[in-house]
Design goal:
By secondary structure, the protein is α/β, with parallel strands linked by helices. Among the domains are: 57 residues; 80 residues, no CATH class. It is built from 16 helices and 16 strands. Strand 14, helix 16 and strand 15 form a beta-alpha-beta unit. The longest helix is centred in the N-terminal third of the chain and has 16 residues. The termini are far apart. InterPro entries: F-box_dom. This is F-box domain-containing protein.
């Protein structure tokens, strides 16, 4: 008789109920013809009993049932043998989202739509991901059927619309207008058809007019509705960017009825915002809701002309039209105090704004400026601006030259300016020795006067140590 040693067992977790198990007769030695059949049956019975008496120590090692075995086999084949099913849904969605802005020009639609045609699993994963659909890019050469299908899928969520320049953007805007109730953000790149785009977005297209027919001819007033008929109940952000429009009718603009919850307005074109907000100021209902306003004037190189800069009278008239405005962002030289630059519309507001001095806009709490101050335009603009916005709580200076003028103005005006200022952010300005000196001197004066000392944050300080890249220079 041969005892079963641990190394001879089927597994280290198996325990035999008997030490004497006759295995060598059936494992190592062949059966002899001289052995009686009854003896063989007896030995087989004993062996079967011993095998059945084996106990499994690890509860995780169990014999799978035929049902679970077939299920695991199907899962194994689905996840291993088919390359299209090897990635889990969360990884697939990350890959899809990385290319969400990709589009094809061959009429097949966006990448998000192409994904849904690959297989049922990809279609299910793609249609369950809002990031693939909620940002809709509208270009003039996009097929109308592709845009309609995209908007239909995206209408399950709130949609961000980006309307680019193109010959057919007014036609696409008419398609977008049919989903006005699901749109929360609109970005428009002005072109020669900007007025037609806004008419289609606000006035809509009469039901008798097929939007596809608008591509066959230039739109006329008869192609659009008689007045504002579309409402955007969730529209909170409106941005109009790009070059100067060749034609612009400011009467066609969003108001309190078409966009009742609009809070953020960006007019990244000086001629556009001057015409819109000054010649035809927004309705009181719309102005009451705006809390963030971005004004930009970033010409494509070359010196600035007088027509590209507005006077401080018109600038103050613009800001005073928004009594609930809290955040003001200015990019480029959008305002000037140079007497040589005169706008004939100054006479219209002179009765209300005789002079910029002494006027305070206390409702504006945050100011973000980039490229606002230029030597050839103004040298005292920074001090005058801080005088108008004397209740600022946060200032963000976006470039070195802007920071230099602003900090110099703070130092010259004294520690009593901007008493409620709690945060001053300098972007890329810490490399200038004069700026560092002026900031330290200004902060020290406020400390000595017992006034509130703002937290000064410096971002991208490329001339200092790496561990100072985000610090509080009030402690330096």
């Amino acid at each position: 008789m041969l005892s079963l040693q641990p190394q001879d067992r089927l597994g280290s977790n198996l325990v035999c109920s008997s030490e004497n198990v006759v295995l060598h007769r059936y494992v190592d030695a062949p059966l002899h013809k001289s052995s009686s059949q009854s003896a063989i049956d007896t030995e087989l019975g004993l062996l079967s009993a011993e095998i059945q008496s084996f106990q499994i120590k690890d509860p995780e090692i169990v014999t799978p049932s035929p049902e679970s075995l077939s299920s695991n086999k199907r899962a194994f084949l689905a996840n291993t043998l088919q390359p299209i099913s090897r990635l889990p849904d969360d990884i697939l969605i990350l890959i899809f989202t990385a290319y969400v802005y990709s589009s094809l020009d061959d009429g097949l639609g966006t990448l998000a739509q192409i994904i849904t045609f690959v297989c049922r699993r990809w279609a299910s994963a793609a249609t369950s991901c809002p990031a693939l659909w909620t940002r809709v890019s509208v270009l003039g050469d996009r097929p109308p059927a592709s845009l309609t299908a995209h908007l239909k899928t995206a209408s399950r969520w709130l949609i961000d619309i980006e309307i680019g320049p193109g010959m057919g953007t007014f036609k696409h805007a008419a398609q977008v207008g049919t989903y006005a109730a699901r749109i929360c953000s609109i970005t428009i790149a002005p072109s020669y058809a900007l007025d037609h785009v806004l008419k289609a977005l606000i006035g809509g297209v009469p039901g008798a007019v097929d939007p596809d027919s608008l591509a066959e001819h230039d739109p006329t007033d008869s192609d659009f509705g008689p007045g504002p008929v579309l409402r955007y109940p969730f529209l909170h952000t409106l941005s109009i960017t790009g070059p100067d429009p060749h034609f612009w009718d400011p009467e066609w603009f969003f108001d309190a009825r078409t966009a009742p919850v609009l809070t953020s307005l960006t007019l990244a074109n000086l001629l556009l915002w001057r015409t819109t907000l000054l010649t035809h100021p927004p309705s009181s209902g719309l102005a009451l809701g705006i809390t963030s306003l971005t004004l930009s004037n970033a010409p494509n190189g070359g010196p600035l002309s007088a027509t590209e800069i507005t006077t401080h009278h018109l600038f103050l008239a613009t800001l005073s039209a928004f009594p609930c405005l809290r955040t003001l962002h200015m990019v480029g030289v959008v305002v000037s105090i140079t007497p040589l630059i005169r706008d004939p519309r100054d006479d219209d507001v002179s009765a209300r704004l005789r002079s910029g001095e002494g006027m305070v806009l206390p409702h504006i709490k945050e100011l973000r400026i980039t490229g606002l101050f230029k030597k050839e335009v103004d040298v005292g603009m920074a001090g005058l601006l801080f005088g108008w916005l004397s209740h600022l709580e946060k200032i963000v200076l976006g470039d070195e030259e802007t920071a230099w003028y602003a900090v110099r103005a703070l130092a010259e005006q004294g520690e009593t300016m901007l008493e409620s200022l709690g945060c001053l952010v300098l972007l890329g300005a810490w490399g200038w020795a004069e700026t560092r000196k002026d900031v330290r001197a200004w902060v020290q004066k406020r400390k000595e006067a017992g006034m509130r000392v703002p937290c000064v944050e410096v971002l991208w300080m490329y001339e200092l140590e790496r561990d100072w890249e985000r610090g509080d220079i009030t402690r330096l």
